[in-house]
What we know:
The chain is mainly beta. It has 3 helices and 36 strands.
Amino acid sequence: SLSLMLCALTIRSTVAEDPPPGGNTEPPYGQPPYWPHPCGWSPEEGTPVFTGAMGWAKFAFHNPPQNYNPNSWIQVTSAADYLPGDPGAPIQNTLRWAVEHLTGPRNIKVLVNGEIKLKTMLRMANQSYVKITGEYATGIGPTVTGDEFSIKDCNNIVLRYMRFRSGILDPENPHYHCGRSLNILGDQTGCNDIIVDHCSIGASRDDNISVSGKICRVTVQNCIIGGAVKGTSYAGIGSEPKFGFFPSESLTFCRNLITNTFARQLLFCSGGRVDFFNNVVAVGATHLELLAKDGVHGPKINIIDNVFRTVNFPYWGNKFGLYYEDPIRAKVVESTVNYPADVLPMSTNEESIYLSGNIFYRYHLTNQDWEQPYTNDQWNFTYDAQIANPTTPGQPNFSTDLRRDNAWPMPNGDTILDAGDVETHVLANAGCRLPTSQPALDDYDQDLVDAAAVGDRLYPFPAADNDGFPGTPILLSPANQATGVSTTVTLTWKESDETDCYQIRFGTTDDPPPLIPGCITETEWQTPSTLITTQHNVLLADHCY
Length: 545
């Protein structure tokens, strides 16, 4: 068959107060004379939007408008999709109809069990107070493929129990390189109070999930973020708050499994507050990269009680016997004058990075075994990539000028698990597992979980593009249209990506029946001597279910 794949700490929060009135329309925001926050002011603390909601967006929907009815549901029962000019468009009860055609505050219940293949990008833009959930579906629930799902300039959005895999491509509808699977973009008015829970986000051509622009109060929790369409894809988390240097709450990533991309898993750049806790980050070249795109403001970040599992060569190669890379990486510079866009100035936010309680596992490629978990000096988790030719594995660390000794204030009431409990909890709970009596992952996610548990790389470098489906084998011998071939010829073919086994069909028609039952794992096969001398067509099936 085809296979694609507690010790608690409570931290007190601060909540932004309404500013005095003012007319200033230029940054720096939050300084007199005040002007309205680009994403709106923080909601008052109250009841979380759903049980288990955490982080800065936990109080989304705190004060919904009068026309929001929490007991009214719009049902998505059709897996079809359409383009605006298609006959019969819009098609009712489709995901596009519910997201793009309907307006106003609403709850969307996605009941499709299986693939919803998009014909083009699906974008929710300039909308407020919308909940989308697949938790009431049957089976494994809905999987959105074919193109990007985008949330642009929206506020108070809840997204739960969905799968997003944009890079599972249609050969007739190729995608641009930077296609994401889930894109949260604050462009003009900004995005605020967005929470993504128990989703599976992967199989992209670039960032599996991108959170960028004018962003305030976004939480991504209990998700599986992993896998890639290209073996060389930078398919992890992208985060670039353009105006993140005003004093505001920003991003929370907690209890996620982030795994199995070639290069970066995580990228946080420019100012703003980020809380990154209780995540499992496994099998990637650069786990968590920090930089300041404006040359001044890097993230004010808490990195607390995470598990990092590193098994591959460093991103730049196996220099000087290096066999791993520390998980928190930046090019640290002292001056912000004529800065390149990929550096982290030492002056960033004055003590910008807080590290505590993380566990780092690393695989020794020479000895081919796991070292003992590394938990002591947390600053040794950092790597200053500005030093081009290090002579010692894992050195040098960031300058201590960037180190913060106390955690940045975090939302009230969030429970942070001890790092020793995190891997077991996340591998057993993250991803789109419908809340049934027996929650289960689909094969793609299960492969990611299994690989993360032992440190397997599913997409080695270099690797052919993969799209979530088996590739097409190429016949090598005999050549196509060959004549005068022996009836006992040995067929050979080129192995295809993501293929478990091959089915051989042999006959005199365009779609001949299988010559042998089942399928074989080898890439060659000798024909039986019982064949007669005539014209035969050979069909190699690219997979077997």
